[in-house]
Every structure is written in C-alpha cells, then in structure tokens.
UniProtKB/TrEMBL annotation:
Record-linked PANTHER family: BIFUNCTIONAL ADENOSYLCOBALAMIN BIOSYNTHESIS PROTEIN COBU (PTHR34848:SF1), PTHR34848
Pathway listed: Cofactor biosynthesis; adenosylcobalamin biosynthesis; adenosylcobalamin from cob(II)yrinate a,c-diamide: step 6/7; Cofactor biosynthesis; adenosylcobalamin biosynthesis; adenosylcobalamin from cob(II)yrinate a,c-diamide: step 5/7
Descriptive protein name: Adenosylcobinamide kinase
Catalysis performed (reactions): adenosylcob(III)inamide + GTP = adenosylcob(III)inamide phosphate + GDP + H(+); adenosylcob(III)inamide phosphate + GTP + H(+) = adenosylcob(III)inamide-GDP + diphosphate; adenosylcob(III)inamide + ATP = adenosylcob(III)inamide phosphate + ADP + H(+)
SUPFAM superfamilies: P-loop containing nucleoside triphosphate hydrolases (SSF52540)
Top EC class of this enzyme: transferase
EC number(s) stated in the UniProt entry for this protein: 2.7.1.156, 2.7.7.62
InterPro entries cross-referenced by the UniProt entry: CobU/CobP, P-loop_NTPase
Native source species: marine sediment metagenome
Gene3D superfamilies per the UniProt record, alphabetical: P-loop containing nucleotide triphosphate hydrolases
GO MF annotation list: adenosylcobinamide kinase activity; ATP binding; cobinamide phosphate guanylyltransferase activity; GTP binding
Function text: Catalyzes ATP-dependent phosphorylation of adenosylcobinamide and addition of GMP to adenosylcobinamide phosphate.
Biological processes per GO annotation: cobalamin biosynthetic process
Amino acid sequence: MARIYFLIGGARSGKSSYGEELAKSLYGRVAYIATSKITDEEMEKRILYHRKRRPKNWKTYEIADKNIDKQGIKKIIKSISKENINTVIIDCITNLLFRIIHNYKLDSIKIIRNEVERALDMEVISFFKSLLEELEKSKLNVIIISNEIGLGV
C-alpha cells in the first residue's frame, strides 16, 4: 500500500468532498468504492448528489448486497489493481461496517447460547482483515472515509 488516509467527521461535514479533493491531488487514476445503500428518499438524494459530484473518469464500484463478503471485496480490490489505478476512496467505512452487521445471519442456537456478539465480532474482524490484506498487496493509495457518530450536523 502506498499510503492510507483516514478521514473522520460527522455526517454531512464535508469528509467525502475533502477525500475527493485529496484524491484529485494525488498522482494517477482514481477508483471509488461507494458503500451506501438506498434505504429511503433522503439517502437516495444523497447518493445521487455524490454520483453527480464525482469526476466522470473515476471508476466507481457501488457495493451491492452480494459484495458484502470477503470474496466480494477482494474481487473489487483485485479488479481495481488490474486497471492501472493509483488511488482508491472507500466511502464510507462506517456504512460498510453497518451493512456487514446487518447482513449477518443470526443463528437461533447462537442467540440462545449468547454467542452472537463473539461470532459477529469474528465476522467483522475477518472481513476487514481480508480487506486490509488485499489493499496491502495492491500498492494503492487508500482514502478511507468514516463517520464519527455524535458529530453530525
């Protein structure tokens, strides 16, 4: 990995636009991994705004539900690496984490045995470990955008 930039701030604080400007200032082509899912009208407007703001020559990967697993994210990073891209923006890691947790299949026996938290922790750790390993192999500049809950506008 060339460099990791971790941008954190409240909702609608300008982190995404700051990350985009940072990516423009770095050498080379840019890929954008968009992690949000349209869940309501407000989210749809926000996603459309982000899409319009992004330069047309950036390669965008909108993560569909089927890509919220280790193999799916590895496939995306490998694809980005093969396309002669220098910088990848992951916007936003908090949404990605929420979606991994939300998609987790709850096993009733694990609930009864009070094992859900431990199993979910392992699922999340495993996912992000795979993501970081793939990013390290890629030699990409990585801009990770994250929400800081409690700092929203």
